[in-house]
Each structure stands twice: as structure tokens, then as C-alpha cells.
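FAQ: What does a multi-protein file look like?

Like this. Sequence, then C-alpha cells, then the next protein.
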Amino acid sequence: MQPNNSLVTRRYDLDWLRVITIITVFFFHTGRFFDEGGWHVKNAVRYQGFTDFTDLLIVWIMPIMFVISGAAVYYGFRKGQVGKFLKDKTLRLLVPVVVGMFTHSILQIYFDATTNGRFEGSFWAFVPHYFEGVFPFGGNFSVTSVHLWYLEVLFIFCLLFLPIFIWWKGSGQKFCLAVGNFLAKPGALYLLALPTMILVTILDPSNIGMKETGGWSVIVYIFFFLPGYIFIPNEAVQTRLMKQRWISIVLALFFSFAWLLQEDHPYGSTGYMIDSILISLASWSCIFALLGIVRRYLTFSNPFLSYANEAVLPFYILHQPVILSVGFLVAGWAIPAIGKYFFMLISAFIVIMVIYEFLVRRFNVMRFLFGMKIRSKEKTA
């Protein structure tokens, strides 16, 4: 049964999962420095092991973030409070993106341009060139604030599907409940993989407007975002996810490694279709496994969760520019890759937390710029 908004208690399991996912994104982006794919800053030597590591994380990281975001919309949207909803999403999502376009994005694009041979010179010499053209289409200005594309896409989704949210909280409640109850039946949850399979198969990620972001086409994320609104708040589904968590873990491992072992196939080939099916099943299996685990074991709060849950968004905003800065510094060091990796992890984490704790968290102006709620004078004191 789908809960009544007015009676819902906080879903600490989703808070834990959000924190775990953002920390995993931090590990993922640090690994991108060493893998064989293109990125803003790269180590001189690339490694297949890091490529496999980042490829396996691509399977589920961004999909589950959009699933959690869909659930957050369910719990945050109130019938008759459209204005409040839009204000909240503007402050929390759009403000950090716009701020990022004119601050840390310049630094990240400078690293990208320098690493990839598009610019030679100092950072300050690059700043005027930042406004030439659009990144990554041959120019430099990042209309997505680089890694903050997720916030921008999420904001667009909230606007685009607002009429559906209004209907779902009104006369469409019975529809949501019926769909959720159907998905709670054994095996029915895997029907959610069908739209993903179809879209990944037919969408060429090299096309403009369908460029891969986080390993997936932006259009595919719709079919993680909207289902998250319907099935995560449904108690029958949550019970099903807990009961099948071990099956989901086994399927997640099987489909993920089966996809990883497939060679890359050209778009439109039979092999590409098989790849699409495997990664879709792997992604949803990972999502179901993680949701079942946190629902079973992480339904509590503690001081760490309270602190980390507030820090999640600023941490996400800060993590990539800091990682790139450290990577740019250590790129030429003659030490083993694993040593560089752990140095980057530890030093970047420390820098991020110092910036957050002493420059962001304590000041309302900075909290506003980072999409955080403004503190009252009493709480600040």
C-alpha cells in the first residue's frame, strides 16, 4: 500500500543510500583519472583494471541516483503546493548549476583544455577563452557546469513531468497504487528493465542530444526517474525488495560481469543489442539489491547520517573540481598508480571536507550558493 504523505516517516534507508552513492561517485571519478576512457585530466599511463572498475560502477551509479530522485519528488511534492515545489527545486538544483558555470567550471575546463592540447598557458590567461563556444561541442563554456549536468537534468525533469506529478497526487493516486502493487508481484519488477533495454538499443549515444552522460543517454534516465516515484514509496514493493535481496545480488553480479566480458560492439549490431539487454538487467538488479539491503539493515538514523545527509549536495558539487585539481598536480609523479589513487582519494576528501565545514556549512550565503537550506540565527549560533 502506498503511504499517505501526511503520515510518512522519514526514509532513513534512502538517506543512507544517497550518502553511499555519492561516496561511490567520489571513488568512481578518482578512478577515471587512470582508466582508458577520455576524461578532463588523465594519468600518463592508463590501466585496464581501472577501466573495468569504472565500467562496473557505470552500470548502477547514475541510474540509482535518478531512482532516488524520483522517490524524493514523491515525498517532497504536495498537492496544491506547486509554487513551493518549484521554488525548492530552483534553489536546490538550478542555483548551484548557474553558480558553477561561472566559478569551478572554469577551472575544470581549463584542466580539460590543457590536458587535451586545446590550450597552453596559465589559468588566468585561459579565463577569457572560457566564454568561447560551448563545451564539449568544440568550445569551452559549460552550460551544464560540467559534472553538475545531473542537477540540471533533474531540474528539467521536474519541470517537464510536473503535470504528471500533479495528476499522480490527485486523481492518479489509484493508478500509482495499482502499478506499485502489480510491481510487488514476484518477478514483476524486472519489467522496468524493458523500456531501458529498448531505448539503450535504439538510441545511438554518439548523436547530438543523446550524448552519454554518466554512461547512459539522458533520455534513458527518464525511465529510472519516473519509476522511482511509483515503486519506492510502495510498502508492498519494499517488502518484495527485502525478500529478494539475495537473488538480486546474485543477478546483479551475473549480469554486470556478463556485460563487462562482452566486447564492445558497433551501434546497430546484434552484439550491441545483447550489450543493451545485459546492462539494463545489470542496472536494475543492482538497484533492487541496494534498495533491498538498505531497507533491511539501514532504517535508522545517527549523528553521522544527519551530518552526511546535509553534506551530500555540497560534497557532490565540490568533489570533481577538487579531484581534478589534485590529479593535475600528481599527473607527472613517478609513483605507482595505486599510490597515486589512494593519495588522490585521501587528499581530495580532506580538502573537500575542509572547504565544506569551514567555508560552506557555516555561512548562509555559501549555503545558498551550494543549494543548502538557510539556517536561522539560532541554529547558526
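And here is the next protein:
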Amino acid sequence: MKKRLAVLGSTGSIGTQTLSVVDAFPADYEIFALAAGSDIQQLEIQARKYQPTLVAVADVGKGHELSVRLADTGIRVTWGEAALCQAAADAAVDTVVMAIVGMAGLAPTLAAIRQGKTVCLATKEVLVAAGAQVMAEAARCQATILPVDSEHSAVFQCLHREDAGRVERIILTASGGPFYGWERTVLARVTPEQAVRHPNWRMGRKISVDSATLVNKGLEVLEAQWLFGVALSQIEVVIHPQSIIHSAVEFVDGAIIAQLGQPDMRLPIQYALAYPDRQPSIIKRLSLPEVGTLTFARPDTEAFPGLAYAYRAGTIGGTMPAVFNAANETAVGMFLAGTIGFPAITQVIAAVMEKHAPETEPTLADVLAADAWARDTAAAWKD
């Protein structure tokens, strides 16, 4: 039987690559729902191609407009946050691909989990900010969370059939981004156009900036502790500019198992969609002789302090990771808008974290309140 998919964030980088995987295996997947924030031009094209039962738009005004555009199709168009949750939780859906950027993905992720869905999770901020609450709900509702990030997919594959107690450490690889090796003084002249040009990966603008600051790797560290049930002290970040080893796991006997592949997000997307099966590759296969040399280095947390701030947030715990994430999202938006410089992104994060008095055992409401406070505080930051 075909898996019936709801793709949330369908017009973004992960969403469009998910649909390319669906195109390669039409006998295996059916699109039941598509959802996006406000790009109704692209969403209309997708809706007419895939003919889903439901299309949801976060932006209310854009949702009204899309309903008019699709009036001739019979496709049901809904709008607002509740519409995204409805698309994720519909009884007809087997698998939800969660590719909405940032904390906007939290409510629909929980909606899918509470209906016992399989969630292919690309929105790392969900577990960064509310990992305890989300994982508890997943356990209670017997929902399955499958990682879509290339690094977490790699770890998931390396851990296959292994007991968590045998894990010595998780090694998350990082390309280093477009400014690997740059001095902090030079980074002050970085432009948004430079920051979004990742050397290896095709990604959205926000995550590309996060990769450039190394904050993305910090977010992955915080997510990994929840996905794999390990302590922060067991997670190490290693710079690997070639992006061929996507991550690795060292076991207590010293053996290290790594997952290698082309730097192409369709590989982990395809693995998550097909799990527990595997399908023939739709990307160029990896040739080790063609790759040649693989190199590794420790991250430079002097020039790129965002990674260190992530570890600090995770060590403090409670609502601090949510504050770290919200301050970063706001600061990245300010940088992309041209209102702050590149180094100020991590300066904003540090300043907001310094002002926060964390709740040590937060409820979901506490997490959301901390998120809102951090956004307001970050937006008011002055150099």
C-alpha cells in the first residue's frame, strides 16, 4: 500500500526535495496534504501537480487568496496555525514530513504525535526548545519520530540494532560553512548573500546562515540528546569540510561506525520515507577514489561562539535552549534584513541568554512563554 503523506513546509528546500523523492517512487507514496507559510504561487503549482485532498496555508490572507486560485480543482484549502495542525493530524495521513522552519513547526508536530503518526522531522528547533515535552508525548502516544537532518539520519543508521548503553559518544560532523578558517575580524564584513551560499549543501536561507555561524551544529547537538537519549558530554562536533561522512558513533569498545554519502538531502529524506526499508538511490553514488582525502578539525569557537552557547544552553537546561533558539531565529532574521552584522547574531544570543532566568522544569506553556520573551528581547537588542 502507498504511504499517504502530509508535507508541511512543502515549498521550502526540504519540502521540494521531499516531493522529488515522491516523484521517483510514485507507486510508493501519495500526497494527501501540502502545507506552507505564505508562498502560494509555488504551493498552487504543487497542488495542481499532486492533487492533494488538503492544502493548508499559515498566512490567513494568503490562504484566502489560494482558495480562490484553486476553486476549480476541488482541493480543500484551509489557513492559519490550526489548519497546519489539521493537515498533520488527519486520520488519512500515515506519515508527516515536518519541514516548517523554526518554532512554527512545534504545534503541528505535536498534533501529528498525538495521533500516533510517523513524523519525519526536519525541524530541529522543535526538539531544541521542547525536547522533553515532545519526546514524552511521542512515548505516550506511541508515535515514531524519524530524523531527516543528514547528521541525525547518519547517527540513527549507525545505531541500528545497538543498545544505547553501548554508545561512548556521538560524533556530529560539520562542514564549517562558507567561512571556515576565517578570522573573527574579517567576519564583520560578511553579507547575507555570502552567508547563504553554502559550499556543499542546497538549503534554505535561515539554515544556511545557521551553518555559517555554527549555530546550526549547536542546534543539532541539542536535538541529538533527545533523539538518542545521550548526555551532552557524549556529543562531539568535528569539522569535516568535505561533508562526506555525515556523522559517526563511537561505541564502548572503541569501534567507530560512520555513515558516508553524497552531500545531498534527498538521501536522508528517502531513508526516512522508506524506513524500515531502503529504496534504490536517486542520487549520484559515492566513489571513494574520486573523493580522495577526507579531513577533520576541531571547531573554532573563538570565531564562531554560537556552538559554545548551544552547549551552555543545554547544560543549563530548562527553558534556556528555547531562549537560545528563539534569540537565534530573531537575530538571523535581523541579519538577513540588513539591520545587524554577521557577528552580531551570536552577540544577540549571548545577551538574551544572559538576561534569562530559566525555569528548571518547564511546562510546554513555560517553553512557549520563554520563546516569546526571547524574541521580544532579541528584537530590542542594540549594539
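Q: Is there any per-entry metadata?
A: Some entries carry free-text notes. For the entry above: The CA atoms of residues 319 and 367 lie 6 Å apart.
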